[in-house]
Design brief:
Chain lengths: ~120, ~110
């Protein structure tokens, strides 16, 4: 079965760092883009950026560039999303999603279950 | 503010047909990039509904259809059912700069 399994919910304080993960299985991890999608409470979907694990080609949405770091370790078939200093406004559900094929503009056909991140003092 | 523009809400009675529009620009939909549609039912993860403008993945009822023209795309839902109530998002790709995936702001479908 093709699936993406994300790490568990996190509760952090402002200023703390955080790295969440997304492990792919059941398919060739290096042949599909992985996207990270933010959904703030009661709001819509925003793509933060995408990474191609095969060569680590990473494309950030401008509003997230410099705010987060997207990476992937193909040895572990896992993609990561990292913050160096969280803010309360980072409170959201974060989804990882797999592209159907090897093209950056492909649809996301498989979604992780989501990781809830809560940042509060 | 989303790159792709969708109406915030649409509604329809059971059995009716509704459409949801998605308007982009010359650097995304107008550049020829495919449009994809997702359904997010309350409390669930997004689900791919339509890919590559008009293709239905296996398991998606043929009540759902997609089309594209110029810088816009549309999702049509016929034979509306109560279980269709939820949020719908369009997605495309913006090839300006290094490229990025872009979503619409989402449309809440209410079945009356």
């Amino acid at each position: 079965e093709v699936q993406l399994v994300q790490s568990g919910a996190e509760v952090k304080k402002p200023g703390e760092s955080l790295k969440i993960s997304c492990k792919g299985s059941g398919y060739s991890f290096t042949s599909h883009w992985i996207g990270w999608v933010r959904q703030m409470p009661g709001k819509g979907l925003e793509c933060m950026g995408i990474i191609y694990p095969g060569d680590s080609d990473t494309r950030y949405t401008p509003s997230f560039q410099g705010q987060v770091t997207i990476s992937a370790d193909k040895s572990f078939s896992t993609a990561y999303l990292r913050w160096s200093s969280l803010q309360a406004s980072d409170t959201a559900i974060y989804y990882c999603a797999r592209s159907v094929g090897p093209t950056a503009s492909d649809a996301f056909d498989i979604w992780g279950q989501g990781t809830i991140v809560t940042v509060s003092s | 503010q989303s790159v792709l523009t969708q109406p915030p809400s649409v509604s329809g009675a059971p059995g009716q047909r509704v459409t949801i529009s998605c308007t982009g620009s010359s650097s995304d939909i107008g550049a020829g990039h495919d449009v994809h549609w997702y359904q997010q039912l309350p409390g669930t993860t997004p689900k791919l509904l339509i890919s590559d403008d008009s293709n239905r993945p296996s398991g998606v009822p043929d009540r759902f259809s997609g089309s594209k023209s110029g810088t816009s795309a549309s999702l049509a839902i016929t034979g509306l059912q109560a279980e269709d109530e939820g949020d719908y998002y369009c997605q495309s790709y913006d090839s300006s700069l290094r490229g990025r995936v872009v979503f619409g702001g989402g449309t809440k479908l209410t079945v009356l």
